[in-house]
Amino acid sequence: MKQFTGRVVAKGTVSAPALVSHGGLNTLASFQKALQFGDKKATCGDQNNPDLYGKQMAGKALCLPRTIGSTTGGLVLYCACSMKRQPACMLFSEPIDSLAAAGAILQDVWLDDVQMPVIDCLGEEFLNYVQDGMTITVKENGVVEVD
Q1: Which residues contact 29 (CB under 8 A, 6 or more apart)?
Q2: How big is the chain by its Cα radius of gyration, in Å?
Q3: How far apart are alpha carbons 60 and 130 in whole angstroms?
Q4: What stretches of 83-147 adopt beta strand conformation (E)?
Q5: φ, ψ for residue 68 (rounded to 5)?
Q6: pLDDT digits over 70-112, tens only?
Q7: pLDDT in tens, 13-39
Q8: Among candidates 127, 136, 61, which has minimal Cα distance to 94?
Q9: Do 100 and 73 meet the contact criterion of CB atoms below 8 Å apart?
């Protein structure tokens, strides 16, 4: 087991299997099927992200450097959470961008029955270490354990 410490953006604790992207997550392209066409598994629809394309994101510990793309990113994350199609958590190796932070904070504040912990600033070593399927445990204080 290896531990990494980051900054808490949205609080919570969770354990889930890792899903890793070494490129930026285009939030709109990735969640579009889940939001428009009822895909409850939130299968990634972003053809430009070979790490995630066609993989289920709902219930996974989504490990990524950053989000990219449209200004709708925050709303897309919030909507995925409100429809219960969100990742178990989002773990950023870099500082979170303002759009993803907006979605993470809105879901944390406005949705009482949903939890999606978000931690950023975990570092490049985190993203190089974690692999798909590893068990990720997020703790309240920003500690992320990788088994």
Answers
A1: 45, 46, 47, 48, 49, 69
A2: 13
A3: 13
A4: 89-92, 118-120, 135-138, 143-146
A5: -135, 170
A6: 899 999 999 999 999 999 999 999 999 999 999 999 999 999 9
A7: 999 999 999 999 999 999 999 999 999
A8: 127
A9: yes
CB atoms within 10 A of CB 26: 22
Spatial distance between the Cα atoms of 52 and 99, rounded to a whole number of angstroms? 20
Asked if 62 contacts 27 with a C-beta cutoff of 8 angstroms, the reply is no
8 A C-beta contact, residue 73 and residue 46: no
Burial, 55: exposed, middle or buried (Cβ in 10 Å; 0-12, 13-18, 19+)?
A: middle
Question: 69: which 2 tokens?
Answer: 């793309």
Map tokens 């428009």 to a residue.
36
Using an 8 Å Cβ cutoff, are 42 and 139 in contact? no
Give dist(CA 116, CA 93) in Å, integer: 17
Dihedral over Cα of 53, 70, 127, 16: its sign: negative
Model confidence at 69: pLDDT above 90: no
